[in-house]
Every structure is written in C-alpha cells, then in structure tokens.
C-alpha cells in the first residue's frame, strides 16, 4: 500500500468512526465521571484535550461537540475547477448572518464556522499567519494595571514558545524555492506537533505580478513574518500536509492522530451543551454541564471533578454563558433568564476584520504569465492538476490554500500625517468622555464597559502611532482585486441570545463603522493601496482602476466607495468573553477563568481583548497550547 493510500484509509476510518477514531454518540457510552469536560471540539478545544490527556494519563477528559467526524477537504481540492469557488464536499459549517448594518448601506455580514470535529480549522482558507509582537504586548497593556501582578502573561515573549510548539513547518523543496523565491526562518517554528504547515509547491502565474508591484511601492520584503516582526511583504504558510497536500486540522492532529493511544480521551459528537449550572452556588465549582442530544432531544448532566472548559467559539461561548445566567443583567432580564452572575462583557466587545475591495482590469492581459486560474477550465490542464495532486509528494494547483502572500503595513508608514490626525481623534474622543455614544445601546450605561472601551481606544492609539505595528493587511493569491483588511477596528458589536429560540443561532450585530474613525482609517488605507495601479509592473499590463475608479478622489467619494464595496466579515470573529479586568468589562482573567465562577474557564477566540493583526487559525492553536500549559501547571 502506498503512503497516499494509507493516508486515505486513515481518513476513511476517521469519517466512518473506525476502531482507532471511535467517537461517542450517546450517553450510554460515557463513563460515570470525568475530570475535565471541554465544550467544543474545535481548534482550541481539541488542542487542550490532546495536551491534558497526554500530561495526565490517569485523568479523564470528555470533549462535547455539536458536529460530527467528517473528512475535511482543503480550500481548493478536487473536484473543484473554479478557483475561489466552494467545494461540494466541504465539511459542515455554521452559516451566521448579522443584522443589517446602517453604517455601510445596510449590508449583512455572513460568517462561516466549522460545525465539525476540528471546528473552523477544518473549513477555513488555511491561511496560517501569526500576529505581530505588538498585538500581544497590547493585550498586556489593555489589562494593566489590574493584571500587572499576575504571573501569567500574554505578551509576545510569553506566547511565542507556544506558537512554535503548535505547528510543524516543512521547508519547501529546492526547485520551488528557486522558482518562486520563497524565504523563511526555521527558528520561528517547532517540529513536534501533528499540525502541519507548508509554503505550497505551486503559485498562479500572476502571483509575482502583485508582489513585484508592492516592491515598486517601496514595501519592504521580509524573510519571515512568523517571528513577531510583521511590517512588510510576507510569505504566508498554509495549513496542509507536506506529502499529500491535504488540509491539516485539529480533528486530525489533535484527535485522530492521538486518540488510539489515549484511553482517557473521549469525544461525544452531535450533542449540544445548553448551559452550565451551579446547584450549590458560584463558589462551589466546577459547574454541572447540561447536554442535549441532537438525535432525540434527551437531556442529561455531566459534572466533572476538576473543571469545565468552554471552547465553543466567539459566537457560541457567550450564548452558553447567557443561557447559564452569566452575562449582562439587562440582557438576561430581557431574555427572561434568571441572573446568576452579572458580567456585562459576555457577548459584548465583538470584533471582526472587515474592509473594502479595490478592483482593476488589465487592458493588455495577454502579457500575463501562465498559468492563470482559467486554465482549470481546460480539460487537459485540469486532468494534469488532478494527477499532480494524487502524486507523492503532491504538487500543482490543488496544493493551494486561499493565499500565500500578504502585506502588513502600519498607519504611520502609510501616511504619517494621517496617522497623527487619527491618533489625536482617538485620544480626544476619550478625553472628551464621548466614546460611549458609539457603543451598543445596551451597555452604554455600564461604567465597566465604558472604562474598558476607553482603555482599548488608548491602547490602539499607541498602536497606530507605532511605525512597526500593522493597521492594514492585504492578502494575495490571484485575480483582479485586493481586499483591504481593517486590522484594528474601533467599533464594537454584540452577540445576544435569540429570545425566540435561545438554543438556536444568536443575534449578531456587527455595528461596523459605528465609530466614524473607522471610516477615516478605511479611506486612508484605500488612498494608499490604489497607488498600485500606477506602478511600472501594472502599467505594463495596461491596468485600469475600476474600484473606486479614477473619478473618486474626495473623502466623501471614497467613503461612498468604501460603503459600497465593504465586506463586513472576513470571518475572524472574536473578543466576546474578553481577557480583561472585571472593572473594564472583562469576562476572564489571564488564567482564562471566568470572573466569579469557580471551576469554569474559557479557551477560544472569545477571550481575545483586541482583534490581532492576523487571521485566527494559528493563534487559536497557540492559545490552546498556552491554556493547556496553564491548566497542567495548576493541576500537577
């Protein structure tokens, strides 16, 4: 049997729930007691489960997951032929839609998240970048002075070892290094984890076009962007196996690859955690976990000996807390839920990456280098692509994720004067005590939420003034457009229970651009990035800007363009159970324990206090690794 065939057999066993990958499907298969219960079998949850079962062979861990075990194809795997389309075999997803946003022409955000063992690591675009060191240092500042005395830190030096631990990076083969000019620094990576990342052995022909144009704009080329320094042009690894080019995700690396040797590791699929309860009061933890079977709606309880770890994601973790009576008193009262613990930050502080899209056409497209994505419509080319993908090691178009390059630029670099104006606006907003007017109505009267928001604004003002801290990301793969990511929005949204059916998807309100300074930043980003049209490389191709278009020059015209072309969500929701002091609207402390709730911890992207300068996949693994280390040290 070939290595490729053996791997496919493993995948088939995983899908079928074979002997080595047996997931529980009913309560009768569970043990009488567990030490740890983890709610959510996604990126963070499975990372923690893997590390706890490894460290404590005599302690039992139960992971409860809404979805089921499925095969998870990559972002561009067969049978797809249209680059950027959707794979009909994609693993199951949640599809969330927000309320209409009046600030950007009533647009609605669409957010996909994994409804599968492996969570969003099984369905995302496989883009595997990391935040800058200034993101993590900002987290510490946002929690100061209250968290200063904590031995647990989340600054860059404290989390970098867990980034290294969380992934095994595989160097590209010499022929592709020569062909594409790949660079990297192996010192930024570890090599001991079955979560894999690579620089792909194929790029579309026009990939070099935009990279060359960015160089002509004076953007510095960085050798490596995973080591904390990230202002410039980066090569971005993708999360896939180096031999098969199959998606590498938590369901494989932190469950299937280890479960056969962990008799203390149980996974219960197709069950929903409805809430946690404290029958004897918040001081008498850990709480009891109430669980609903999706097969027959039967309810049962699990009470662990050690603790409960919520890892249901930035949208569902606050929903579980809300149903448990933990959250803003006014919100719970309105939903008819008895208050157990008043924490205004639960479901608040919602953030996501968003931004406009610049577009163009080439009037001399015949000069574009081959191959371009439309080649996939050629029968012979597509057949060869499939053959290359089935080779060991795999190569060709099907080895691609959604992007392999990106730029990260600071506001001070884009426009020193513009950055100064924006920084002063932010600081004046705080000094004038007017910041609350831009917050969601249901927590404008909360002193802790206002104090926390002001602390975040001042932290971001310092961030924007830093010439080494990115405010703009532009990822690149191929095509005639560039998406401009607003990395650090000032606007804040909410995730609230659906009162009509609290067990269903919650109500999401993005509120993008509710703080008008965000529009100033989007305009600044747009003015800078449209300069790419005038680079020598683009002019050789006869590039003509179609969006915003040459007639859009004033701030008012550019604001209308931003609203028209805005993407409300680049699918990086976070921050709804923030790691901040309670008097600043925080939900968890540096140890990730919920303020005031004994035996309850949160480990997912909801704990981020601020949105980082990165997609969230690599960060989720690192947070899971660091959280597991914190828990292991506490219980050793």
Topology:
Elements: H1 3-16, E1 36-39, H2 43-55, E2 61-64, E3 93-97, E4 110-114, H3 133-142, H4 156-165, E5 168-170, H5 174-180, E6 196-198, H6 207-216, E7 232-235, H7 250-256, E8 265-268, E9 271-277, E10 288-293, E11 299-302, E12 307-310, H8 313-323, E13 326-327, H9 329-335, E14 341-342, E15 357-362, H10 379-389, E16 405-410, H11 411-414, H12 416-431, H13 447-465, E17 470-476, E18 481-483, E19 485-486, E20 494-496, E21 507-509, H14 517-529, H15 536-540, E22 543-547, H16 555-565, E23 600-602, H17 617-635
Parallel strand pairs: 1-2, 1-12, 2-8, 5-6, 12-23, 13-14
Antiparallel strand pairs: 3-4, 7-16, 9-10, 10-11, 15-18, 15-22, 16-17, 17-19, 20-21
Helix pairs in contact: 2-7, 2-17, 3-13, 4-17, 12-13, 12-14, 14-16
Quick recap:
The protein has 636 residues and is α/β, with parallel strands linked by helices. Helices cover 29% and strands 15% of the residues. The chain has a single domain, classed as Glucose Oxidase, domain 3 (2-Layer Sandwich), CATH 3.30.560.
